[in-house]
Design a protein that fits this description.
Number of strands: 20
Structural class: alpha+beta
Largest sheet: 5 strands, antiparallel
Number of helices: 16
Strand content: 15-25%
Keywords: 4Fe-4S, Heme, Iron, Iron-sulfur, Metal-binding, Oxidoreductase, Thioether bond
CATH architecture of the domain at 183-330: 2-Layer Sandwich
Distance between the termini: 52 Å
Organism: Geodermatophilus aquaeductus
GO molecular function, one term: 4 iron, 4 sulfur cluster binding
EC number: 1.8.7.1
CATH topology of the domain at 183-330: Sulfite Reductase Hemoprotein, domain 1
Radius of gyration: 23 Å
CATH class of the domain at 183-330: Alpha Beta
Low-confidence stretches: 1-12
Cofactor: [4Fe-4S] cluster; siroheme
CATH superfamily of the domain at 183-330: Sulfite Reductase Hemoprotein, domain 1
Length: about 550
Amino acid sequence: MSAPPRTSNRPQRGQGQWALGYREPLNPNERMKKDSDGLEVRQRILDIYSKTGFDGIDPGDLRGRMRWMGLYTQRAQGIPGGKTAVLEPEELEDSYFMMRARIDGGQLTSDALRVLGGISTEFGRDVADVTDRQNVQYHWIRIEDVPEIWRRLESVGLSTMEACGDVPRVMLGCPLAGILEDEVIDATDVISETVAKYVGNPEFSNLPRKWKTSMSGCVDHCTEPEIDDVSFVGVVNEAGEAGYDLWVGGGLSTNPMFAQRIGVFVRPDQVTDVWAACTSIFRDYGYRRQRNRARIKFLMADWGPEKFRQVLQDEYVKEALPDGPAPAPAKHDQRDHVGVSRQKDGHNAVGFALRTGRISGSLLTTIADLADRYGQGRIRTTTQQKLVILDVPDEQVEELVEALAEHDLQVRPSAFRRGTMACTGLEFCKLAIVETKQHAQDLYAELEKRLPDFDTPIGINVNGCPNSCARFQTADIGFKGSMVRDDNGEMVEGFQVHLGGHLGVEATFGRKFRGHKVTKAETADYCERLLRGFLERRTPGESFAHYVSRAEEAWLL
């Protein structure tokens, strides 16, 4: 989609919006992108860096453009969280990379999952993470191995293209799209069309910041459209036609905002063009001067949905879009597709919980084998760090459940195992302040021992820093990593607590209380005390989030 003509020639230096005439680099990131498009780094990796090794990488590529190929330097081992904000990036980084393989719509074949597993085992010390954006993430990757990794991924239709960077990131879709009888609409084709046309396209390779998309007709709203930059949410209009409601401007991090409905009905055949129009608005009108205000949510906060709709229609799609209805509320509070779900063809989808998304390449390979043995080789990733095996006949469901349990993959997990998520954390992330993955696993295991009969859905999201990769603001109990003073006056790893966040009807971000922090060592005791209070005081059928909304502050500290 070409950029529309501009009607103003007066530069608006204040926000650095291209559409208003100001295109000069405004900060180091904008300068880096102007010097060389991020997509161009791919060839340098193939021709130069994979041969010279880590020390031969240009700094602008190393800490900037390589993200366009899904590569970040990982944190050097042994650097404590208290040093995160003190050291320069080159002092924090190791000579290894985190690599992210994008899995649009969460759709995998068993062959693809074997390749993903094999890469982890052979090149990533047998470590892998299933992320809360349906990707698979590696660690310990050497630049010398990247060309071979790309070759293997591309052989099964996967890539790392634009898995990071100021670009369209992985496009979320319901893992059970086209599978369940009660979905509003199957978004598989519109995701595929949009990815094929625009991922890796220079038209959108220089956006102000990251651009997160979801397209889904899931009745559970499992892609969490409330917090994506742009979302297409399945609806049925008054004429009985299935299509999409357009939402724009969601995002978390240090300034969380919910997406706003634009109020238009988008037919399936319009989705790719409307997505490109929304992305073009972000590219052209997005704020580029200050990086911490460069997300679409800040533009939406200033414009509002009415102005966004006007610009969308008048300048980009060049036609009026009809008014559309709001989608129905999510059918279920839990959006992870864990458990056994009946497919419309009579088979079953079997969803299971990992250990806060952490897994080995060897186990990914085993899961691929199980998907072939018990299903038809189709696997899906979810936005809750879970996996689903499709097409399992009734008579083999329990056998598969048992086979997965042998590897501690739980189809019927405890409320704590099911509801706990964690970001990458201090182990590998240069932004993190605390360790998260193992701590979250230890936390849910301890809560299972202390509260074995707890059966209410509960989300516990453990985040290593304020950037909210694990969405701590929308969890029942959200832990944001920080340094905390313990009883001896020493600074130790700990968390600021956010309580009662939830999405859906009357969505809200979690409550926080001035100065309310817990040390890492105190989290299990704190959660137990908090949840016992909930069990004692709750009303029949009351959710934890609702309880928090009416709770006295003393109950929550």
